[in-house]
Amino acid sequence: MFSCLFTFEEQASLSLTTQGATKIYKTLKDCVKQYQTFDLGADTYFEYVADPIIAYKDADYYQQNIFNLTPTSTMFYTDILTPGYDSEAKDFSYKQLHLLNEIYVDKELVLYDNMKLIPHEHEIGDIGFMEGYTHLGSCYFIHPEINQTLLDDLVEMIKGEDRDIRFGISMMTINGFTLRILGNRTYDIEHILLKVQQYINDQHYQRPVPFLRKY
Length: 215
Hints:
single chain, 2 helices
């Protein structure tokens, strides 16, 4: 089990990533667990761009992220789920991938995202789950100036990318959006998430996006 707590003072700014891909191999007993809590102060800007989570055959993984924001905090978050190599060429040979993300603003829950993929219980490659794709990307962005016009611009931008993906984007109940991307290659999803991050930084911060990949 891994547990991390990140605390940000007022007006802090941080771009955070992982040391590398999170690789989960065969899990013999209890599942691998990771807990992360992020406490953001007023007027904080926080980017968390994680490397892919790769689940190999018989992997069992649980991750919980809790984000505590103030009304003036801003956050950008991404993650990518991918199946690891399997000697029998099966796309979904892991036991379970369970990601739980909770976002609070002034201690009020504004997003509860409970993503649970269990291949032996469901045909997750089919309609209603992965829709024939193997990789899944997620993104959240919370900012006081988020509106429908920004979402429309992002939709048109993503549509203009020549990638074999499917995606959906939705407004939250607060000023923010959620984005899901289905694909068959990590690079395709990373490319789209980077384009979204670049657009946000251009529109709201007029600064370049830091290069956070290790390859």
